[in-house]
Specification:
The complex is a heterodimer of chains A (about 350) and B (about 280).
Chain A lengths: L3 E10 L2 E11 L4 E5 L6 H9 L6 E6 L2 E2 L10 E4 L11 H11 L4 H15 L14 H13 L5 E5 L7 H18 L2 E6 L2 H7 L2 E6 L2 E6 L1 H6 L4 H6 L6 E10 L2 E5 L5 E3 L11 E6 L4 E4 L6 E10 L4 E5 L6 E5 L10 E6 L5 E4 L5 E2 L4
Parallel strand pairs in A: 3-8, 3-9, 6-7, 7-8
Antiparallel strand pairs in A: 1-2, 1-4, 4-5, 9-10, 11-12, 11-14, 12-13, 14-20, 15-19, 16-17, 16-19, 17-18, 20-21
Chain B lengths: L4 H29 L3 H4 L14 H9 L2 H32 L5 H11 L4 H12 L8 H25 L3 H10 L3 H12 L1 H16 L3 H6 L8 H5 L10 H26 L11
Classes of the chains: A alpha+beta (about 350), B mainly alpha (about 280).
């Protein structure tokens, strides 16, 4: 187990910069998830840590030791690939023991390690099978087994669940979390799935365009997204983004949206009156009540029942927004509802640079 | 789903016709090789002679230089196949996996060598090999065949390496292997079909090569079998029976070779490596 330190790590392919100086300190035993859309540089960063991509500039240290010029084999890390990358000509046991054999581990120790790992992953009956005789979930487990048989300094996961169906993904997610709880190994996990990021991470690193957008606990990112990108990326259904103009009225801020409607904000913001802002509000924070309860009257355009609740498509001020409601009775096409917004639940972002703004005082 | 039986019959018939068409020359080779000389011309185009004999085979094996040709061919083709495959495997791996300066030009150059008719190159080849003492020698032939087969074999091997996911060797390198160990223990075993195909391709090409063998070799000592076959053509007659018998004998090693490697030629060894 080891801490991983990344200092202004940059990656360029020729003149194309894919990673613009990443700084990140990952604690010993921490589970960090790198999340972002495809092409954001998260996999590149992971592969740089693994030693599969050269570091253009900057420094990566594993357990206090600079690894920039170390071969992957000398970095003592384990990696689970999206494709699993199982050796097709080897049995499950051979796949899992390959790294130990390369390290000339004594036979008895190898056998013990395989038995332990196979037991932990429920592969006991399958150790003599070849990968092609396994199901997707089993292959995924073998790939995990290959990583845990030796005790590496860190586990790297490169979208390990992307090839599984939804049910299996949920199940493996729990297993990975449990495994991390048991082993306490430093883990870096790359995914584009924000649910995986939210559920697994101690800390999430949200990336976009080769730049780290925000680092924080899952709830931090959810409750206080640092900018429009994080706000839009984390959470499903996604946060509503409403363009507005900031106004100061009686010492408190309001957001003036299309049609002149004014949404009161949680306080005054350190920007001049008339600044263009974007108001973000999560669908579950749009309060929908039966008509006559007060608030903005609007019609329900479309209903997406999820069973747990309903996603209502509304347009209270000419702009489409989504609301999530647990009250099924509200969910009828064409029905009228009243909508209110809790000022404390409104996120305010500067339109100019997308940055989050907090009320003064 | 059951298919229309008429269609099935037509389908089989078409395949049968094609096979008959493709194999007929071989059949004729066999037929002539067992036809006694006195029946060769008298029976015309009968599909099978009224009397068969193995006298041509006996004569070819016992009284001609054929066994020597055979051995020469075997040495030349075998060595060429092995050398070319090793070179092509390494070169193909490099082309498949690495980005390096001049890669485009090396590829282009290799393609270029495949564009010239071989006839054009005979005179310069002879000029190069003669002072080196490599004419009239099996080594000379091996060198020439190797040079001519490496480019195509490299492309062939490259395409096989391209078909093997990079993840596999990356996984091996993270597991603690050097790139070379990953190549040897993970990638090569998965490329066996490719290696078998390359071996087979080069072996057959060298086995049946006539032009260079004819030009670079004089005399029987270093003659390969295609050159040797011409010795059955004399000034006044062609000994068809013996020639065909020698031809049949020459087919045996090539056929055996493919029999040996055919199980590697069957693809699908990589199934299950990655998501499938």
């Amino acid at each position: 187990m080891a801490a991983i330190d990344i200092k202004s790590a940059r990656k360029a392919y020729g003149a194309v910069n894919v990673l613009h100086g990443v700084d990140l300190a990952i604690g010993d035993g921490e589970f960090v998830v790198l999340v972002g859309p495809s092409g954001c540089g998260k996999s590149t960063l992971l592969r740089m840590i693994a030693g599969l991509e050269e570091i253009t500039s900057g420094e990566i240290a594993i357990g206090g030791r600079r690894v920039n010029d170390l071969q992957p084999k000398d970095r003592d890390i384990a990696m689970v690939f999206q494709s699993y990358a199982l050796y097709p000509h080897m049995t499950v046991a051979e796949n899992m023991s390959y790294s130990l054999k390369l390290r000339r581990t004594p036979k008895e120790r190898i056998a013990a390690a395989i038995t332990a790992a196979a037991g932990k992953l429920g592969l006991d009956q399958l150790t003599e099978r070849r990968p092609k005789a396994l199901s997707g979930g089993q292959r995924q487990r073998v790939a995990m087994g290959r990583a845990i048989v030796r005790s590496p300094k860190a586990f790297l996961f490169d979208e390990p669940l992307s090839n599984l169906d939804a049910r299996l993904r949920e199940q493996m997610r729990v297993e990975i979390k449990r495994l991390h709880k048991d082993l306490g190994a430093t883990s870096i996990y790359v995914t584009h799935d924000q649910i995986e990021a939210m559920t697994l991470a101690d800390r999430i690193v949200a990336m976009n365009g080769g730049v780290v957008q925000q680092v924080g606990s899952p709830l931090d990112l959810y409750d206080r997204p640092a900018n429009l990108f994080v706000a839009g990326f984390i959470g499903s259904p996604a946060m509503n983004m409403i363009p507005a103009t900031y106004r100061l009225a009686n010492g408190t801020g309001v957001a003036e949206v299309a049609g002149g409607h004014r949404l009161p904000l949680a306080g005054s913001f350190p920007v001049p009156d008339g600044t263009a802002v974007v108001i973000g509000v999560r669908p579950e924070h749009v309060t929908v009540s039966p008509p006559g309860s007060g608030g903005l009257r609007t019609g329900v355009d479309l209903v997406e029942p999820t069973g747990f609740g309903s996603i209502l498509h509304l347009a209270p001020f000419g702009q489409p927004i989504k609301a999530f409601s647990l009250d099924r009775s509200l969910g009828r096409d064409g029905a009228a509802v009243d909508v209110t917004f809790d000022p404390a639940r409104l996120h305010v972002f500067a339109e100019a640079d997308g940055r989050r703004m907090d009320p003064a005082g | 789903m059951r298919r229309n039986p008429v269609l099935t019959v037509l389908h089989r018939l078409a395949i049968g016709l094609y096979i008959a068409f493709a194999l007929f020359p071989l059949y004729w080779l066999l037929k002539v090789s067992v036809t006694p000389n006195d029946l060769l011309y008298s029976e015309g185009v009968r599909l099978w002679p009224s009397r068969t004999s193995f006298e041509h085979y006996a004569f070819v094996i016992a009284n001609s230089e054929f066994p020597r040709f055979f051995l020469n061919s075997f040495i030349v083709s075998g060595s060429t196949a092995v050398i070319v495959t090793i070179v092509a495997a390494v070169a193909g791996y490099a082309l498949s996996r690495f980005a390096f300066r001049g890669k485009y030009w090396i590829t282009a150059l290799m393609l270029l060598t495949q564009m010239f008719p071989l006839v054009m190159l005979i005179a310069p080849m002879f000029k190069i090999l003669s002072p080196l003492g490599l004419t009239n020698s099996l080594t000379g032939l091996i060198v020439v065949y190797t040079a001519f087969n490496v480019p195509f074999a490299t492309f062939l091997m490259q395409s096989f390496f391209d078909g093997i996911p990079r993840d596999l060797e990356e996984a091996a390198m993270i597991d603690g292997a050097t790139r070379f160990v990953a190549f040897r223990q993970i990638i090569l075993p998965l490329t066996l079909p490719g290696i078998a195909a390359t071996l087979g391709f080069v072996f057959t090409a060298a086995w049946s090569e006539l032009l260079f063998a004819l030009m670079l070799i004089s005399g029987n000592a270093a003659a390969t079998f295609p050159v040797g076959l011409l010795s059955f053509v004399s000034k006044f007659s062609v000994d068809f029976g013996q020639m065909m018998a020698a031809g049949i004998l020459a087919l045996i090693p090539a056929a055996l070779f493919f029999l040996l490697i055919q199980r590697y030629l069957v693809q699908g060894l990589t199934a299950g490596a990655v998501k499938g």
